[in-house]
Amino acid sequence: MPELKKKIKFIIDRFSMIYEFWRDYCNYRRWNYNNPKVVTRAAQESKILRQTHMIEKGMSLSEPRKGFGQQKIAVLFEMMDQYLKMGYPSDGMPFQDAIIVLNAYVDMQKGLGYENAAMVEKLKTYDTYRIDGLTAGIKYDTRANLMSNIDKPFPEFFYSRHSMRQFESKSLIIEDVEKAIKIAQKAPTACNRQASKVYLYKDKATNDALGELIAGNTGFQQEVPNYLVVTADVSAFYDTFERNQVYVEAGLFSMALVEALHYYGIGSCILQNGEYYKKNKKFKEICKNIPENERIILFVATGYYKNEFSYAMSLRKNVEDVFIVK
């Protein structure tokens, strides 16, 4: 009888798992912003933010291309006009971010000897909405200045880290990465299960193969000496309600990791892993040593800071838009 009860419970648990994944699918299908029925402010602002980031990412490369991104800018203008047409506030951070980044783009391109008169005129139509005093776009900096923050109070150190797309060509020293990982291991972990792992490949061929497949590194993959592959072990979790815990675990771990890397003079850029079965299978074929029970959560492009470089300075939302008290 006890064995029968165990079997029944097992079957019920499996049906429960299917049901919960189905509910996840229904919720995501309903609310992701590719659904044309989703016209929430959050959806429209997220579209603008992602499109703006495509522009600022291109600006943050070692050698930005003359006149790059014109089609993407045209799409961004359409999104901004639609946003205003829907009655959403022009003083919202995403809308302001787009205006500031586009103006910074115009200035940068003038320096490269390029100007699109029609685009400049279109951009001027948003001048009346622009709020003075906000800063976004690209910042030029030095390694010495950036590293001067490591011994300052925590907020200053934390604010000093930025996503990097320019690196020195030399490979990472394993001991430096080990020190950073040791710090990252202090990140919160569910019931101390410590499901996160980091894989580093020293050979150029593996890193180049990963770079060819990873999304989000266009324009700077040739500058990345090493990718860190962050995984989480699915077998560390036991029930349906923990089905997303691998992302929580590895996400917290990775946040601590990139800050620790920064402390040791290593720049980084987190690159998300698209959850497609066939693509993940290819990643594991390239890596050769990641077992089936581990899920690749994200990649981190890493390298030592150059002496001089630039990076994107993206605006963040107002605290009152993130912190809700009732």
TrEMBL record:
Pfam families linked: Nitroreductase
Keywords for this protein: Flavoprotein, FMN, Oxidoreductase
Keyword Oxidoreductase: yes
Recorded GO MF terms: oxidoreductase activity
Cofactor dependence: FMN
Occurrences of domain Nitroreductase (ranges): 160-304
Gene3D superfamilies documented for this protein: NADH Oxidase (3.40.109.10)
InterPro entries, sorted: Nitroreductase (IPR029479), Nitroreductase-like (IPR000415)
UniProt similarity note: Belongs to the nitroreductase family.
Protein name: Nitroreductase domain-containing protein
Species annotation: Coprococcus comes
